[in-house]
Write a structure and sequence with these properties.
- About 70% of the residues lie in helices and about 0% in strands.
- It has about 180 residues and is mostly helical.
- The protein has one domain.
């Protein structure tokens, strides 16, 4: 009898990832909204991700909302606002994380938190302290299910660049 192994990520896992992604991205949205009043595209992406996290289907609306947030990120010049919009993109994209075991896929799980941390710390009076505080918040906000999901995926290797260092720090902290 040939038994297939269960998929690396289930739809429930994707909903758990989206829930955490929404929590993280939501914290950064005010930064985008202050920089670009009236542009609701990142907010719409976060709300579409929330609908999926709460049991809704993956729809064309979810994908369209992610593309809208991506356009908003491209159009804004402020680096913190750009990172906030990217957190929204990544939150909406969480529903589409591939259930395959590659080191790249962990970036999709960690990306919403990393972009939100980046958005909240850029331009802060004490950028390093804010980044550390937001990193601790994101790790504390991660459910046991998120830690389980991260734990069964290949871990990130240290790499160059501040954003990649942030992804590595999140990955490492969630595996403890």
């Amino acid at each position: 009898m040939n038994q297939e192994s269960p998929p690396l990520l289930t739809e429930d896992d994707l909903r758990q990832i989206a829930r955490w992604a929404v929590d993280c991205a939501q914290r950064a949205l005010p930064i985008f909204e202050a920089a670009v009043p009236g542009d609701t595209r990142p907010h719409e992406a976060v709300e579409a991700a929330r609908a999926f996290a709460e049991g809704g289907p993956r729809t064309a609306h979810l994908r369209k909302a992610a593309w809208g947030a991506q356009a908003a990120a491209r159009e804004v010049a402020d680096p913190a606002a750009k990172a906030a919009a990217r957190a929204a993109i990544a939150a909406a994209g969480a529903a589409y994380t591939h259930p395959i075991e590659t080191p790249h896929q962990i970036n999709h799980v960690l990306g919403p938190a990393a972009y939100a941390i980046q958005a909240l710390s850029l331009g802060a009076a004490n950028e390093a302290a804010t980044m550390e505080a937001e990193l601790q918040w994101a790790v504390a906000a991660a459910s046991p299910e998120i830690r389980r999901i991260v734990g069964k995926m290949p871990g990130r290797k240290p790499s160059r660049g501040a954003f990649h260092a942030l992804l590595f720090a999140l990955d490492t902290a969630l595996r403890r």
